[in-house]
Predict the 3D structure of the following.
Amino acid sequence: MNTKSYFFQSFAIVALALIAFIGFKQILPDKIFSESKMNSKNVLIDSLLLEAVAKDSLGTNDSLDAIEDAEGKEEIVYENVEGIEFPSETFDNYKGYQYLISFYEKLYQLEKHPESNVRIAYYGDSMTDGDLIVQDVRTNYQERFGGNGVGFVPITSESAASRGSVKSTYSKNWKTQSYLNVKKPSSPFGVNGHVFFANDKANATWVQYEAGTNKFSTTLNNPTLFYGRASRSGKVNFIIGKDTLKKNLAPNNLINTLKVSSGHLKAFKANFVNADSIPIYGFNFDNGSGVHVDNFSQRGNSGLPISMFNANVMQGFNKSLKYDLIILHYGTNVLNYGTKNYNWYERGMTKTVNKIKESFPGVSILIVSTADKSTKYDLEMKTDSAVVPLMKAQKRYALDTESGFVNLYTLMGGDGSMVKWVDETPAKANKDYTHFNQRGAKAIGNLLYGQLNKGYEEYKILREKREAVANQQRAARKTKTDSTSVIKDSVNE
Amino acid sequence: MTTIDSINDWFIQNFGAITTEQVKSWFIYNPDEKLLFNTGLFLGLFLVFYFVYAFLRKTFYLRLTYVILFSLFFYYKSSGIYFLLLLLSSVVDYGLSQIIFKATKDSTKKIYLVISVILNLGLLGYFKYMNFMIVTFNDMFHGNYQLHDIFLPVGISFYTFQSMSYIIEIYREEIKPTKNYIEYLFFVSFFPQLVAGPIVRAKDFLPQIYQKLNLSRQDVNNALFLIIGGLIKKTVISNYISVNFVDRVFDTPLSYTSFENLMASYGYAIQIYCDFSGYSDMAIGIALLLGFKLPVNFRTPYKSTSITDFWRRWHISLSTWLKDFLYISMGGNREGSFAGYLFPSLFFFGLLLWGITSYNTSIIPLIVASVSILLFCLSFLLSSKKKQTLVTNLNLFTTMLLGGLWHGAGAQFIVWGALHGLALAIHKIFVEIFPSKKDKSPNFLWRFFSIVITFHFVVFCWIFFRARDFETALQVINNIGQLTFEPELWKTIVIGYKNVFGLMLFGYVWHFLPETFTNGMKSVFDKTPILVKAIILGFVYWIVYATAVAGSQPFIYFQF
């Protein structure tokens, strides 16, 4: 046995293999496990998005960058609204506090009169599933301005199980129509984009709520059922502990409400009987004063389906719920289409924002941009090349529709931040390099609240300045009249 | 000139331009890029190292020093400045082992042994468990101690156990100490098994140092076969399914369907096997190329017909280490010890406390606690030799509890160890009551049934092992509990994750292939000429590369 040959032989094999590898690399494809497109039939994604993508020519505009650079430096100067004018800003740093004035004024009034209330609707995609992010925004507001309750909760949701701020369980026989994939619902969609029917005649159709453990939502405050118009009436039994309350549903108006109980419950169950044609929307939980934040999350949503809302129905909701701020937090679901030209999305979302304005007259609107998301380029996870173009498109429609804007991408750290959030210990985001975990969502919720609150503090300063100026003017006017009277007097003399 | 230019172009095209910055980065510690066996950098460095090694094969100290230097560099690349810790602990351990060997009185030997065990476990305890202990203390007594900013040096659990085996074996007079420090350091720092095992025993390894270095043709074949298998298991199967599926489900189990949770649990079982055994196989293969034989670490563990069988096939080097040095030291099946009573009592007390405190929200924890205690008691009460079985089971349970904790600092690892410990005790009493007939092998159906049961128990335990915390584990289990038979939905999910599920299937089929088949494959591989072997290895490199560059699958939410 000659040992020498085997050491060098094995070296030769390993070295030759390296050469073979280089050869294979040249003749074989770059990747295995291609990221094939899914058959979208079974995947939760909104149909308007798919249509918009299909329609879009996907033509990329080469000169886009140059235009954008110029656009970034462009100065945005605000018009004075009732004596308030936020300082001008550049497109790059656009936040648009000016467009949130009506919301800020309501907060200001709330601070003065703690019995009044402010309501926020937070529309989002899977990022806000299970009340992630939204519950942290809610807690921040309720901590500072008061208020108890989780807000409006739909009957069923794919993410109900993962929601800790309120626990809801429901029978499997609810018939649900979602704005995600239904264009012509049998009754109009509710404020969260869904409509539910209890049309199983054989079995009970029920939903059960139990208060969660979040700081200001440990009870179900004034639970109130929201339902729509139908030709036939129905019944509902509310089971609270050992008591059963039998109530009739009178579906006469576009939106009807029915109070389960005045006061705070720990849990209750609603059993719907003979309510087959009545559109059921959900329950609202709030204590009537302070800030309330509704979470209207929907997985797979791009935000476009909101443009299908029935404005009359929404106005009906608004009569009871009185929204002051609508937050639109979308983008995750439009990142994966291989396009960097988001003109089509800009157009679609402009329609959405206009629909919101029509539905909730006078409401302030806040656009939250896409967060950072990573994709593998060669061997490294990096910020997906579509993130920045999408974020810019979102900023553009925010500016064009006179909405406030939160740049979540820069807020969380900008380029490469998602990789950091995932790799950090303890991690703040999930291994899909897209979604935040509980810890990360809390951080995002705090960042978001932080920016909104910064605008509010600035508003208060501007408002005080206005008061001061007004007082001065009043004082000046007073002295002026005084002096004229003096003149008058002297004339009279 | 043109040829040089064209070679240069070709080089740049295939490897990219190499800057001094890059060359520097090859040799400097980067916490984000560990020097794993499946990286291109390791391959490059190893080729250069191995070429020189082949020339040094007839030398002794020169060769040992050369390997030590490479090993220290290898460790530096993984843990930075902490390679000094490895050096320091080896100097101390070597010194203590010399004292123990030379001491004449048994009491002196014992004192130094205790000192060495305390030092080693203290070091491991500080780096691995300090923060866990602080958190536990703060939780239990509402304390407010600051966490320490501790870096966990790679492989500290492995090399600590390895040095401990050396000292204990000297104390037990099973081996003689090495002639000098260099030989000892070679044993402790040997890079193939340094960071992730197998945990090599001094008595198996030291004799090999003194043998004439030899590498037979069969050794090369075995080594290459192990490396190829290891690369595929670790980089293709394990990495891909973890990043694209398993990690996501375990991050937020409630966002996924019951079926996805179930598949993620099966996925994790094959993932951890492929990851761990794949890396072990590569380590054994690389050591073999250097002329050293390391012990087998995994023998297709999911083919086990009982939980006892499982622990003879899973991470063998660890389970034998624990058996020889922990279980036997505590008294094994002969006598009880303080630790043997302490840890199980603490565990069952904690379990009962958990059951009682959560009684208001749910009665299930209390039932779980009572049933576990009852089962443990039955495991020795039903035995004909109650006293001895009690002692054995207590020591076994302690071994499994501490073995669980060895895998990581966290309550879920303790639970994992406890489940296995309880299962081992139950299996023992089962075998005592229903002894298998020695003369004939069990029938196929019974065998199949045993394998399925054992496998599912192991998968169940892995859920605790993988979950971020105890609560997440319960979420996964709860979610799987709600599984209903919906073939249409399952089909949709399987199609959605076809790459992942395809790889999982491949992993399981490979695992359950009859041994005759894998041996057949091996003998075909052995007979191929060198060039073909090189091409096969090169193709595997390519597969590793192409999987590594494959983008991660975008997230999918199914509608149901």
Summary: The mean pLDDT of chain B is 85. Chain B touches chain A through 64 residues (CB under 8 Å). The radius of gyration of chain B is 25 Å. DSSP finds 24 helices and no strands in chain B.
